[in-house]
Structure formats: structure tokens, C-alpha cells
Write a structure and sequence with these properties.
CATH topology: Rossmann fold
Protein name: NAD(P)-binding protein
Helix content: 25-40%
Shape: globular
CATH class: Alpha Beta
Order of helices and strands: EHEHEHEHEHEHHE
Keywords: NADP, Oxidoreductase
CATH superfamily: NAD(P)-binding Rossmann-like Domain
Pfam families: adh_short
Number of helices: 7
Distance between the termini: 38 Å
CATH architecture: 3-Layer(aba) Sandwich
Largest sheet: 7 strands, parallel
Strand content: 5-15%
InterPro entries: Fungal_SecMetab_SDRs, NAD(P)-bd_dom_sf, SDR_fam
Structural class: alpha/beta
Strand order of the largest sheet: 3-2-1-4-5-6-7
GO molecular function, one term: oxidoreductase activity
């Protein structure tokens, strides 16, 4: 399996994560490791290129123990390295409130999944990434967590935003601390996934304009062309420009 490109995608059972899993599986000579909180028929029933393989890991992204235990099983699949980690698993609840009244428990819940989930994925994957020739760690971030753009986007999803800000910071630090790694954040856009449609309806917004496949194609193209010099440490957007951190 050492000649295959190994891609790990967290939160792969629905939405963008599922779309990424499908698309990578259709590429030849790929091993796609898909993580999910629970067994998912949407994953186990996927078709793929005959030279590619799907591995499904069940884990809780907010738990360091659950994540490290799941990654420890990769040796049984003869996986010795990981080329690309896509930290996609995330939580977006309708905890809508200004900072003066936001529920601290909701902030903590989002921090546990959106910040610590990315941290757990990186720490568990790092021993495998270090063995890859050109390793990449990519976080699916959000423009709602752009501190520089707070005034432009007044939607009071403060629990979600705070959790994503933490993840953004970690990825920027991962870039600075690891010279042999390409690490960056990508904003997938306003995507018409199940969750994206629910959020748009809750805020009285029109349906998101970006299809799941359009977002997936953009993300994969960014990863394909990414280099440490040109992409590392950036917050890239489907809108064609970098967002403010």
C-alpha cells in the first residue's frame, strides 16, 4: 500500500466530508480513510475505482482517547503513512445569541468539537504525516470565524465562531512549527449541504449558492496545487481571495 496516496477525512458520513470521500475514492491508487461518529451506510455503500480502497474509522472527534485509539488500528490495514489530512468534522448548532447571553456550555461544546477535534486529528495523524513525502494538513474553516471580518458578518453564531477561531489559530501554528508540512485553512463557501440549508432557513437567507460537488471540486483543486511557499499558512476561500484571520 506504500505506493498509494493516503487521504484521511474526518466527519465523512455526510455533506462535504462525504462528497470529498466519494471524489477521492474515484481517483486511482488512493486509500481513503473516512472517520465517522457511528457506523454509516452512506460510507459502506460507496463505489470506487478498482485500484482504490476505503477504510472507515469510528471515533468521537472531541475525544483524544477515541481519536488516538482509532488511529492506532491503521497498522492493521498496513497503512504506514498519510499524505493528506482533511479536518472536516465540525459542529454547527443553532446556538444563536450575542456574547452577553450566549450559553457558555454551547461555547464549550463547539470548542470541544471544532477546536479540539482538529487538534486531536493532527496529533494522532502526525506520526503518519511525518512519513509522507509531501504531507498536507487542511482544515475546513469558516468565514464566520474571521476576526478581521466580524463587523461585516453580524450573524450571532458566537459559539460556532469562537470554536472555529481556535482551530484556525492551531492550523496557522502548525504551519509555523513544521517546515516540512503544507498546512492551511480553506473556507468551502456557503454550501447547499443538509446543514447549510438548515442554517440558511433558520436565518431567513436564500438557499446556499454552492453545491456540495462544486465545493468539493474547489477544495481538492486547492489541495492538488498547494505548496508550502504558495499556500501554507493561508486562509483561502472559494470566492477567490484569502479571508482575514
Amino acid at each position: 500500500m506504500s505506493s498509494n496516496t493516503v487521504v484521511l477525512i474526518t466527519g465523512a458520513s455526510r455533506g462535504i466530508g462525504l462528497g470529498l470521500t466519494k471524489s477521492y475514492l474515484f481517483r486511482p491508487n488512493h486509500i481513503v480513510i473516512a472517520t465517522t461518529r457511528r457506523a454509516s451506510e452512506s460510507l459502506t455503500s460507496l463505489t470506487h475505482d478498482p485500484t482504490s480502497t476505503l477504510i472507515v474509522l469510528t471515533l468521537d472527534p472531541s475525544s483524544a482517547t477515541s481519536t488516538s485509539t482509532a488511529f492506532a488500528t491503521l497498522s492493521s490495514y498496513n497503512v504506514s503513512h498519510i499524505d493528506i489530512v482533511l479536518a472536516n468534522a465540525g459542529l454547527l448548532s443553532m446556538a444563536v445569541a450575542p456574547v452577553s447571553t450566549v450559553d457558555p456550555a454551547a461555547v464549550l461544546e463547539h470548542f470541544n468539537v471544532n477546536t479540539l477535534g482538529a487538534l486531536h486529528a493532527f496529533q494522532s495523524a502526525w506520526p503518519f504525516l511525518r512519513k509522507a513525502k509531501a504531507p498536507k494538513f487542511v482544515l475546513l474553516g469558516s468565514v464566520l470565524a474571521s476576526i478581521g471580518g466580524v463587523e461585516k458578518r453580524p450573524v450571532p453564531l458566537n459559539a460556532y465562531g469562537a470554536g472555529k477561531v481556535g482551530a484556525h489559530y492551531l492550523v496557522r501554528k502548525i504551519h509555523v512549527e513544521n517546515e516540512g508540512l503544507v498546512a492551511f485553512v480553506v473556507d468551502p463557501g456557503r454550501v447547499a449541504s443538509e446543514g447549510g440549508k438548515e442554517a440558511a432557513k433558520a436565518f431567513g437567507l436564500p438557499e446556499p449558492p454552492v453545491s456540495v460537488q462544486q465545493s468539493v471540486d474547489f477544495i481538492m483543486a486547492e489541495i492538488d496545487k498547494s505548496t508550502r511557499e504558495q499556500t501554507g499558512g493561508r486562509f483561502v476561500s472559494i470566492e477567490g481571495k484569502d479571508w482575514e484571520w
